[in-house]
Amino acid sequence: MSILSCLQNAPAHRSRNSALRLILVWLAFCAAVMLIALRLAYLQIELTTAFTSHEDFQPYTQEPISAIDGRILSSDGQVLAYDHQTFQVLVHYRWLEQPADPRWIKSQINSQLTSSQRRDPELIAKATQTLIARRDQMWQDLAILASVRPSELQQRCNSIQLRIEKMKANILLKKQQRAIATAPSNTLAQTPQNLLESTEQFVSSLSQTISDELTQPPARHDKDDLILKEELSSHLVLENLPREAILEIEAHPNRYPGVSIDIATRRIYPKQTLASHLVGYKKQSTDPWGQSHVQRQSGIELAQALQLAGQPGLREIDLKTGQSRILSPAQSGHDVTISIHARLQQRIETWLDELITPVAQTLISPLEDTQSMTGGTVVVMNVHTGELLTAACAPRPDLSLLADGDPEYWQLLLNDKRSPLLARPLQAQLTPGSTFKAVTALALIESGRWNPAQDFDCQGYLDRPDQFRCFIYRHYGVGHGPTQLVDALARSCNVYFFSGIRHVGIQPLIEATHKIGLGRPTGIDLPNEKSGYVPSPESYKQQKLAWQPGESLGLSIGQSTLQVTPLQMARVMACIANGGQLVTPHLVHHPHHPIASHNAGLSPGAIRQVQEGLAAVVARHDGTGYKTVRLPEIQIAGKTGTAEVGGNKPDHAWFAGYVPVKN
Q: In the chain, how many H helices and how many E strands?
C-alpha cells in the first residue's frame, strides 16, 4: 500500500517544482531586462550630452610655436644677420566666426552646466546670451589694447571666415560632382535578365545595409558635418603688438578666451650689402594662421641652416575653451661666426664700388665702352689655414631688400648687365691669363725635361712675328733676350712658356693643374661653387673636338678655353706660399672637425724657384708688378695677368699673390 501511494504522488510533486523554477527564471529575466532598460534610459537621458556635445572626436588641437634663428657674426664681432622678434595675436576660428556656430555654442554651454541644468531652456538661453556678450566684449577689449578700430578687426575676421567658407564650399561641390558622376544609370531596358540582376542587387544591398546598421556607427549625411582643420585652428589677427599689450593678454586669459600669443621673427641684415654673397639671405613669409615659413636661398644662411635654425615649440589648444598650454618650448638656433673681417671687407668693397661702372651706364650701353669695369672681386685668404678674411664682390645685392621679397628690386637685379647676383669669388669662371704662368712654371720644372736655370733667347715671338708673341714685341718690336724661368715670370715672357710646353708636351701641365686643385671645386663651405674648366686632349675628344697645337700654347699662358674662379687662384697662390699644402678655403671654423688639407705633391725645389720668380714680379724694376703693386713697407710676391676675352668686351685684369714674401 505505502509503495503504490508513493508512486502515484510523485508526478504531482515534480510538476510543482518545475512551475516554481519557471517562475524564478521568468523573474530573473524580467529583472535583467529592467536593469538594461534603466541603464538605457540613463544613457539616453542623463549622458546624451556627454556624447554629443563635442563637434569632433578630438577635444584638443596642436599648433607650432615660432623659434628664433641664430645670428651670423664676423670675426671682429660685427652682427651680419639676426632675428627681430615681434608679437602677434591669434584667435581661434570659433571665437571670430559670425554668426557663431550652434554646435560650438552648445559645446561651450554644456561645459558650464550640469546635466540637469542642460534640460532647462531658460538656463540655456541665458548661458547663450552670456557667451555671445563675452565674445563681443573680448573683441572690444582687443581693439582698445591694439589701438585699432573695431570695424578694422571685424573686417579682418570677415576676410578669414570668407576664405574658409570658400574652401568648404569647393570641397562640398567636388563631393557632389563625384556623387553625380558615380550614380548608377536607370536607363537600361527592363528585360527579364535586367530585372533578375536588379533583384539580386537589391537583396545584396538590403543585406549589407542590415549588417552595417547592426555593426557600424551611424553615417553622417548633413553637409554641415564637414569640419575643416581651419575651423579648429587659430588665425592671425593682429601683428607687431607692444610688449605691454601682450602682458595684459597673458595676465587675463579669462578676459581673452580663444586668444593666443605667438612670437613672429623677421630676419634683419643690418649691414645690408656687406659681404652679401657670403652671408646669403632667407625669405620669410607668414601664412594666415600666423605660422612662419622660411626659404633659405644662399650663402651661410643656406650652408649653415642646421646650425642657425631654431627648433619650433608646440602648444596644445582646448577647442572648448580656447585656452592653450605649452607642450614643448621653442629653442633658439646657434650663432655662427664666420672668418670674414667686417672692417677689412667694408674697406675693400668701398674701393671696388668706386671702380665699378654705375648700373645706369651698363643698362644703356653695357658692351660699348671697352674701358668700363663691370665687376670685380678681392679674395684674402690665410695661406696656412684656408680661412677667408675677405671675399669682397662688386656689384652686390642689398640683403634687406632681397629678404623682403621686393619684386621691383628683384627685377632691377635681373636687368643689371653687371650680374650683381653672381658671387664672383666662387662662381665667376674666368680666363686667368698670365697669373696661370706660375702653374706652367711648376709643370716645366716637375717634368724634369726643362732646365729653369738655362738661358732661353726670347726674340719676341715663337715662330712668326704675327702670332704667339710677347706683349713687349707687340708694342715695341723687341724681345726679352736671354731669359731664365725667374726672368720669364718677372717679365711675363709668353714665348718662354710657349717654347717650354712645346718642348715637354701638354701632359705635365695637365697633371700640374690637377695637383694644384684646378678644374674642380675647392670645397669651400658655401653652396653653388663652380668648378672651372681645364681643357685637355681627352676632354676635347669627349666633346668631339680636335686638339690643335695652338691649344697647348694658349693654355701655357692661361688662355685657350681654360676657366678658373678667383677663389681657385687664391688657393693656388696659397699652395705656393705655404710650401705645397693645398688648403680648403672656409668661412666657418669647426674645432672638432679639422679643415682638410693635403700635400699637393710638388717638389720643394720647384716651389722655391716659383716663389723666387713671383717675388721678382713685384720687387724687380723690370717686373710687371713693380709700378702697380709694389709697396715700400712690405714685400709682396705674385703675378699680374690680363686675360683677353675677345669682341668688344674689356679684358679681365688679374693680380694673384701673397704677402709678406718671407712669411
A: 25, 18
Alpha helices in 46-149 (DSSP H): 48-52, 93-96, 102-110, 121-146
Instruction: Name the DSSP class of 498.
Output: H
Detail the DSSP E strand segments found in 4-163: 60-65, 72-73, 79-92
What is 595-643 written as a DSSP string? PPEEE----HHHHHHHHHHHHHHHHSTTSTTTTTT-BTTB--EEEEEEE
For the stretch 290-305, pLDDT in tens is 455 667 688 999 999 9
User: What is the amino acid identity at position 197?
Assistant: E
Strand segments, DSSP code E, in 421-514 are: 456-458, 481-483
Work out whether strand 597-599 and strand 581-583 pair parallel, antiparallel, or are unpaired: antiparallel
pLDDT value of position 7: 43
Neighbours of 34 (CB within 10 A): 10
- Alpha helices, DSSP H, located in 183-284: 192-215, 243-251, 276-279
Best CA proximity match to 396, nearest among 298, 295, 272: 272
Q: Are 288 and 408 in contact (CB under 8 A)?
A: no
Nearest CA among 434, 433, 447, 436 for reference residue 500: 447
Contact 16, 69 (CB under 8 A): no
Cell numbers describing residue 327: 607642450
Dump pLDDT digits (tens) for 438-458: 999 999 999 999 999 999 999
566-577 and 604-619 helices, crossing angle to 10°: 110
Q: How do residues 363-413 score in pLDDT, each as one tens digit?
A: 555 445 445 778 999 999 999 999 999 999 999 999 999 888 888 899 999
Strand 388-394 relative to strand 376-381, pairing: antiparallel
Global confidence as pTM: 0.73
CA gyration radius, the chain: 42
**Bridge partners of 73?**
79, 337
Strands 336-337 and 72-73, sheet pairing:
parallel
Please, which residues bridge with residue 325 across strands? 316
CB distance 444 to 504 below 8 Å: yes
The single-letter DSSP state of residue 546 is: -
pLDDT class of 209 with cuts at 50, 70, 90: low
Q: For residues 453 and 612, is the Cβ–Cβ distance under 8 A?
A: no
CA dihedral 170, 171, 172, 178 (to 10 degrees): 110
Beta-bridged to residue 202, according to DSSP, are: none
Whether the bond into 59 is cis, omega within 30 of 0: no
Cell 534610459: give the residue: 41
H-only helix segments in 237-275: 243-251
Q: What's the DSSP call for residue 46?
A: T
Taking Cα atoms as reference points, which of 412, 429, 397 lies closest to residue 297?
397
Q: Distance (Å, rounded) from C-alpha 611 to C-alpha 613?
A: 5
217-256 burial, b at 16+ Cβ within 10 Å, e below that, comes to eeeeeeeeeeeeebbbbbbbbbeebeeebbeebeeeeeeb
